[in-house]
Amino acid sequence: MGESRQELVAWLNNLLQLNVTKVEQCGTGAALCQVFDSIFYDVPMSRVKFNANTEYAYLQNFKILQNVFTKHHIDKLIPIESLVKCKMQDNLEFLQWSKRYWDQYFPGTDYDPISRRKGQGGSIPATGPTPRASASTSARRAAPAASNTGASRTRTPLGAGGGAASAALKEENNILKETVNGLERERDFYFSKLRDIELLIQQSIEADPELEKDEGLLKQIQTILYSTEEGFEIPAETEGEAGEEETF
């Protein structure tokens, strides 16, 4: 068994001089990046976003952490998709593993966390897009407070609550838009890379048709490119257009 949640939070705050209150906040990836910076001292901390409040921003932090693991040959799978959901159990287990790794490899030298993170604040957003939660809370609190105002109690709670609820919906909508836009940019980025690889393979086969008969590397890459998950179906409106141009 590893340390308890309280022990891990205290360790993080002491090591990194942060204001973490619960292990779920490690789902942003920022604190984890700096834990490993305290070991290796080569994490690009200026690129780590401590004020991240969307899953897209969390993913950028975890990409930095994944690069660190790759560079230092750390044979540990980072369950990024689970961690960015900011669920307690997933983040607790990974933080416990991180603490064991730190205990084993921390060099014991003086570490200045504030200067390493280039002046970024010491607080990490609670978990996920917190503004919508706080707005909803303020709406719930407004109603009981106004209910004691006699004749006006039927209008004031609705006005206060309605305004807060509207603000919460706008905040949530903006967060969702930012997340969707970020995911679409990332999707297009990786799709363009896959398309470039596909075109390169096609050009190689056109130059040397014998490669298509060979079960070597190019054939294996093609198999991966054209593979689909079980149950996947090409949408009806695009089936006729797939041809040779759209292969994913």
TrEMBL record:
<dbReference type="GO" id="GO:0072686">
    <property type="term" value="C:mitotic spindle"/>
</dbReference>
<dbReference type="GO" id="GO:0035372">
    <property type="term" value="P:protein localization to microtubule"/>
</dbReference>
<dbReference type="InterPro" id="IPR027328">
    <property type="entry name" value="MAPRE"/>
</dbReference>
<dbReference type="InterPro" id="IPR004953">
    <property type="entry name" value="EB1_C"/>
</dbReference>
<comment type="similarity">
    <text>Belongs to the MAPRE family.</text>
</comment>
<protein>
    <submittedName>
        <fullName>Calponin homology domain-containing protein</fullName>
    </submittedName>
</protein>
<keyword id="KW-0206">Cytoskeleton</keyword>
<keyword id="KW-0963">Cytoplasm</keyword>
<dbReference type="GO" id="GO:0035371">
    <property type="term" value="C:microtubule plus-end"/>
</dbReference>
<feature type="region of interest" description="Disordered">
    <location>
        <begin position="116"/>
        <end position="166"/>
    </location>
</feature>
<dbReference type="GO" id="GO:0051301">
    <property type="term" value="P:cell division"/>
</dbReference>
<feature type="domain" description="Calponin-homology (CH)">
    <location>
        <begin position="2"/>
        <end position="103"/>
    </location>
</feature>
<keyword id="KW-0498">Mitosis</keyword>
<dbReference type="InterPro" id="IPR001715">
    <property type="entry name" value="CH_dom"/>
</dbReference>
<dbReference type="GO" id="GO:0051010">
    <property type="term" value="F:microtubule plus-end binding"/>
</dbReference>
<feature type="compositionally biased region" description="Low complexity">
    <location>
        <begin position="125"/>
        <end position="153"/>
    </location>
</feature>
<dbReference type="Pfam" id="PF00307">
    <property type="entry name" value="CH"/>
</dbReference>
<dbReference type="InterPro" id="IPR036872">
    <property type="entry name" value="CH_dom_sf"/>
</dbReference>
<dbReference type="GO" id="GO:0030473">
    <property type="term" value="P:nuclear migration along microtubule"/>
</dbReference>
<dbReference type="InterPro" id="IPR036133">
    <property type="entry name" value="EB1_C_sf"/>
</dbReference>
<feature type="domain" description="EB1 C-terminal">
    <location>
        <begin position="158"/>
        <end position="234"/>
    </location>
</feature>
<dbReference type="GO" id="GO:0051233">
    <property type="term" value="C:spindle midzone"/>
</dbReference>
<keyword id="KW-0132">Cell division</keyword>
<keyword id="KW-0131">Cell cycle</keyword>
<dbReference type="Pfam" id="PF03271">
    <property type="entry name" value="EB1"/>
</dbReference>
<keyword id="KW-0493">Microtubule</keyword>
